Amino acid sequence: MRPALRTVLCTVGLLLATMLFPSLARADNPIVQTIYTADPAPLVHNGRLYLYTGHDEDGSTYFTMRDWRVYSTTDMANWTDHGSPMSLATFAWADANAWAGHVAYRNGKFYWYVPVRNRATGGMAIGVAVGDSPTGPFRDALGRPLVENGEIDPNVLIDDSGQAYLYWGNPRLWYVRLNTDMISFSGSPTQIPLTTAGFGTRNGNADRPTLYEEGPWVFKRNNLYYNVFAAECCSEFIGYSTAPSATGPWTYRGTVMPKQGSSFTNHPGIIDFAGSSYFFYHNGALPGGGGYTRSVAVEKFTYNADGTIPTINMTTAGPPQVGTLDPFVRQEAETVAWASGVETEASGEGGMNVGFIENGDYVKVKGVSFGTGASSFTARVASGTSGGQIEVRLGSATGTLVGTCTVPGTGGWQNWTSVTCPVSGATGTRDLYLRFAGGSGYLLNLNWWQFTPSGGSGNLLANGTMEDGTTGWTSSGGTLSSATDVAHGGSRSLLNSGRTAAWQGPHQNVTARLTNGKSYTTSVWVRSQSGTPSAKATLALTANGTTNYVQLTPAQTVNANGWTQLTGTATVSWTGTLTNASFYVETAAGTDGLHIDDASFQ
Questions:
Q1: DSSP readout, 520-569?
Q2: Which region, left, alpha or beta, applies to residue 434 given φ > 0 means left and ψ of -120 to 50 means alpha?
Q3: Alpha-carbon distance 31 to 122, whole Å?
């Protein structure tokens, strides 16, 4: 962690934790504790919720923001840090103010609309960047502003008809109809009338007679259009209006979130995920937090029967977890519910790692399902000093100690090795705490971890990490090779090139490892060599001379610019004598080359 934020959190944190957060050890809001974040913009894609935020610099006394960040979750409790795929440097024409943006998905691409200061004019303008993956990287789509009138806070709605609208504005409110390319528009920007009937009445400010301030979040639900916005500075609350069409007329409906928290601004984001509705916002809840050092948080809510939005209050608890986390597949160290004292950074093995770890720091992973138990814990670690220890604890940072892994010096902060230690007593569903211990200064970096279940190796696939080259794997068509240019984790992946049929892919014989009638969980990370095929994991079972196919994961679109996780659970059964069982990854159509990495079938 950067010294400034670490100092604030460590020296002031204990006092503030007691005064402001009596249940801090159990809290899950704010979502991110390693940096200050603001202006949330959620997006659901392929069964995962992605959260795009701004980044308040430590110690800011203004809205000092130079880059944007991405996080994601599948359970609304544990969040994966994907780092910063876009910054002011992305826009050669911009020189300051990486403020509140919004991401929309269309045409197989992700479009990130952001307000930045135009170097040439000195005014605020809306730029747009495009990426092939929800986690980037993103590139400037135009090399110039998309639209510029000195106002901020873009938001995009793609209506059921396919028409996309860009909304933005402070002090006014605007929209423009985007073309299908999402980087140009038809007609001229239209100013939405800010009437008291449409946006409520503000008292004592003749220049701003309505409650609308900034940050529109426009969406459609049950044929009704909602505009949720930051209202009445300062301090701001969150209000909303509704309309029968994307362009109005708007009717003010009331308060969503009252003036709360220690930030004088707020910024809304609303989305449905996994069958529930969620409201994102920011406050100044972290130690050292305030109006210029904010933190993103989230609450679960239910619409009223008439479609109105209930009043939502800030909490430190956050929403309940959706499901549990599987400790027997590889988990990224930067996937956490809470972090204390640490920071994240780009890893030399790809993705991010947890770093800048000192004695007493810890990370919490919520709702870990150990089932009948675990026998060992493996961690991918590096240390530029003499290392330290990872204490595996349950319930709290001082809770039950079930194992301790000693981490040696590895000769560098990105010189990675794996360490394994026995564990005992990890059963059921518990919150996992990895507490770090050692001498003074920085101890170690942590890239990923994984438990082994009691009574076996868990993963039926040999060389599931692909670190042993092609060992254990063959191809059902084309050429199988060990790739070192791209890897999801570690330093290698498998590449199946030269495929001539969709069903051809990397496969492994698991005949002797299966139990009839048992359910198996699959996780495998896939990346195309080119194109955007739809990939899935399949099990071919041959019994009594008949071959049947079990689809192990739902098909998902993969691309060449990032990794996509295929996950699923399926019951495997057969009649007669099983003579062959092959696990493999295939595509629904096409013959693009495929990379796979970090495969688990257990």
A1: EEEEEEEEESSS--EEEEEEEEEETTEEEEEE-S--EE-BTTB-EEEEEE
A2: beta
A3: 34
User: What are the Cα distances from residue 212, in Å, to 96, 215, 327?
Assistant: 25, 9, 46
Cα separation values, 214 from 180, 255, 358, 495, Å: 26, 15, 41, 48
pLDDT tier for residue 467 given thresholds of 50, 70 and 90: confident
pLDDT at 459 over 90: no
Q: What are the residues whose beta carbons fall under 8 Å from the beta carbon of 172, sequence distance 6 or more?
A: 151, 191, 192, 194
Round to whole Å and give the CA distance between 213 and 385. 51
- For 264-281, give one letter per residue: b (16+ CB within 10 A) or e: ebbbbbbbebeeebbbbb
How far apart CA 130 and CA 162 sit, in angstroms, is 19
Other beta carbons within 10 Å of 357? 28
Residue 592: pLDDT band by 50, 70, 90 thresholds? Answer: confident
Total residues belonging to the chain = 602
**What token pair was written down for 249?**
């007329």
**pLDDT of 363 strictly over 50:** yes
Catalytic machinery residues: 39, 213
Which of 512, 513, 417 minimizes the C-alpha distance to 456?
A: 513
Q: Does 13 have pLDDT greater than 50?
A: no
pLDDT attached to residue 491: 80
What is the helix (H) or strand (E) element at residue 196, kind and residue range? helix 196-199
Cis peptide before 193 (omega within 30 of 0): no
Range name among 212-221, 429-438, 566-575 with the lowest pLDDT average: 566-575
